[in-house]
Design goal:
Helix content: 55-70%
Distance between the termini: 29 Å
Number of helices: 14
Largest sheet: 7 strands, mixed
Order of helices and strands: HHEHEEEHEHEHEEHEEHEHHHHHH
Radius of gyration: 33 Å
Length: 404
């Protein structure tokens, strides 16, 4: 085998340009498959990270839009949320009304667009932030419906000229009323480059206030947002969501299926399936170029067999068996294909990492895909080298020796 490898490499070096042009189809094919597969895996990883940032156990539940005979009792109340906490205990990590408002925040000297989120005091447990000044909302703020807020650092710096805006106030319209909010804390939150790319630069500030401030005790709540316990695995989370939905439907006197559950788990699964399917389909199309590359290898090996007819005759006259000749040409075909595949992989990985650096994206290249690509490229060479090798091995040594 070592001797055959040396002979194969020597043959390729003797015809460098022809060998390179033959390998080009394999280089393009393997490079395309690796690049497309890695881009698909990278996109899946980035979407997975986005869902991790928003909470993989997060879900929304509300009465279905298809239900015609809706009642006020189909909506939620603050008392309902307390009941759910008691019934589900530690399995229900967080619940609120999912309140959000885009408003104009006014100070004494400036005005800025803000996204104001109504949250509970333990929202920091499911959506961690880094408090750099002051404190986060506490249980007293929520129960007392206090006009306090926690503001994002860069927005505070923009409207106050300093990140440390603790103790300052902003004027915000809430439920039709102008409310002065006291800034009790400043936070920073890590946002991935992919999230920034998806959300774009809205220029909006971000702040959290007690969700009870956005809902009076008698208000009816359209939907509830909840987070299941973060320690649940995929099966446990699916089971919990089904139990929670069934309980609400029974409590509200509705039929199974009257409420709609929108979970991050389902969205993530659908997105992963879609991206995986697209990646496989496009990768399959790109793999067609491997077929073209394989045909190119077969063609050049047939030319090589014709050129080396006398060599084959001499080897057979000196005692080489049919299988020895066949293994020689199969080895040459496999080496030609494997080298092309390796070059294609290196080029694809290099381009991907350069693109990742330029766009600040984490590139995912799975080692098993690389190994599979190398092995597959060698198999392509062997498969398309069988016919030329067989043709070489079956040559009559007397005829081959007379060949000019």
């Amino acid at each position: 085998m070592i001797e055959n490898m040396k002979m194969a490499i020597a043959s390729l070096r003797a015809n460098k340009m022809r060998s390179f042009l033959t390998m080009l189809g394999i280089i393009i094919g393997i490079g395309s498959v690796i690049a497309i597969t890695s881009i698909g895996d990278t996109m899946r990883k980035m979407f997975s990270d986005v869902y991790k940032d928003i909470g993989v156990t997060q879900s929304y539940l509300y009465i279905g839009y298809w239900v015609e005979d809706t009642r006020d009792s189909d909506w939620f109340t603050m008392d309902d949320f307390e009941t759910y906490k008691e019934v589900f205990g530690d399995r229900l990590q967080y619940i609120d009304a999912s309140n959000m408002a885009s408003v104009d925040v006014q100070t004494e000297i400036t005005q800025k667009k803000f996204d104001i989120y109504g949250v509970d005091y333990n929202y920091i447990d499911v959506q961690p932030v880094d408090i750099v000044y002051g404190r986060y909302l506490n249980e007293s703020d929520i129960k007392g419906r206090k006009p306090n807020c926690v503001m994002e650092a860069s927005a505070a710096a923009e409207i106050f000229g300093t990140e440390n805006a603790v103790g300052k106030t902003i004027r915000v319209p809430i439920n039709g009323n102008i409310t002065d909010l006291n800034i009790i804390g400043i936070f920073k939150k890590e946002v991935s480059p992919f999230q920034k790319m998806m959300m774009g630069n809205t220029g909006r500030g971000e702040a959290y206030i007690p969700w009870t401030l956005m809902n009076s005790p008698d208000d009816l709540i359209y939907n509830c947002r909840y987070f299941a316990n973060i320690n649940m695995d995929e099966a446990e989370l699916k089971q919990f969501n089904a139990e929670f939905k069934a309980y609400v439907e029974k409590q509200k006197g509705r039929n199974p299926g009257d409420y709609f559950l929108n979970s991050a788990q389902e969205q993530m699964g659908q997105m992963d399936t879609m991206l995986g399917g697209i990646s496989a389909a496009v990768g399959g199309i790109a793999a067609i170029s491997l077929l073209v590359g394989g045909i190119g290898i077969m063609n050049i090996m047939l030319v090589s067999v014709t050129e080396r007819t006398r060599e084959i005759g001499i080897r057979k006259a000196l005692g080489a068996r049919t299988k020895d000749i066949m293994i020689q040409f199969l080895t040459e075909s496999a080496v030609l294909s494997a080298i092309g595949g390796t070059i294609g992989i290196l080029l694809a990985i290099g381009v991907l990492y350069i693109a990742g650096k330029i766009f600040s994206l984490p590139i995912v290249v799975k080692p098993q895909i690389v190994l599979l690509a190398v092995g597959f490229s060698a198999l392509v060479g062997i498969f398309f080298g069988i016919f030329p090798a067989k043709k070489a091995a079956e040559k009559d040594p007397i005829v081959a020796l007379r060949y000019e």
